[in-house]
Amino acid sequence: MLFHGLNALLFHIGVFPWLMMAATTIFFAPDWPRRLRLLPPRRLPDPSIEPSPPRARAMLAAVAAYLVLQVTIPLRHFAYPGNVSWTEEGHRFSWHMKLRDKDASARFLVADPAQGRSWTVKPSNHLTRLQSSKMAAQPDMILQFAHHLAGRLRRAGHHRVEVRAWVTASLNGREPQPLIDPTVNLAAQPRGVRPATWILPLRQPLPPRTKGLAGAPLRHRRPGTPDAAEE
């Protein structure tokens, strides 16, 4: 508990420490919820009543479906093209935690062809600092924010608004490169599970390795790399 509590205090890793704290209860005696009166007393089954075969088959099917989900959901990123740490497609629930370091900056170009106007939007004008930093590195969040901007502007009278994103990102110390195709109107792109064609492929190679004082290989980091945030 102390270890996970320190992780929650020192590192920004979401709900993971709290989930692990809750998971430690699997090492308790099976009846601990009933001891704390969190569950009603257990009723012993009548030995004279045999289990119903349809019910047993239904329980077996439910367990099998659960196991299939536990296998397929973490592996679903293999159904998407590209590096999952770059595109983020299928990354959630895939047990890729702490396998990448990603820095990004984002700003948005909004255009109203009917009025012949265009202007730049900084995410920090609409989001908190934490929300901006998370969004800049996540293509699905970038699309969601573009839809949010378009919705607000349509309600303000810009009915044919277009939203494009200028996003650069660095993955695991690589040189920054564009993450999103800046020519695509994200306001017209649907949200769904299909591969996103507007995510640009990862082309930058990993930086060269050097040797540390103890002879261990170290990877070059770009000096002055900021946290993922908008420009």
Description:
By secondary structure, the protein is an alpha+beta fold. Among the domains are: 1-41, no CATH class; 84-202, no CATH class. Helix content is 32%, strand content 15%. The protein is built from 7 helices and 6 strands, in the order αααααββααββββ. It has helices at 2-10, 16-23, 32-35, 53-75, 84-87, 129-136, 139-155; strands spanning 102-112, 117-121, 162-171, 177-178, 209-211, 217-219. The strands form 2 sheets. Strands 2-1-3-4 form a 4-stranded antiparallel sheet. Strands 5-6 form a two-stranded antiparallel ribbon. A hairpin with a 5-residue loop joins strand 5 and strand 6 (217-219). It is elongated and about 80 Å long. Residues 218-231 have low confidence and may be disordered.
Q: Briefly, what is this?
A:
By secondary structure, the protein is of the alpha+beta class.
Q: Into which percentage range does the β-strand content fall?
A: 5-15%
**Element-by-element helix/strand order:** HHHHHEEHHEEEE
Average pLDDT metric: 86
Instruction: Please report the number of helical segments.
Output: 7
How far apart, in Å, are the first and last alpha carbons?
A: 39 Å
- Structural class of the helices, strands and pairings? alpha+beta
Low-confidence stretches: 218-231
Q: How many beta strands in the DSSP annotation?
A: 6
**Strand line-up in the sheet with most strands:** 2-1-3-4
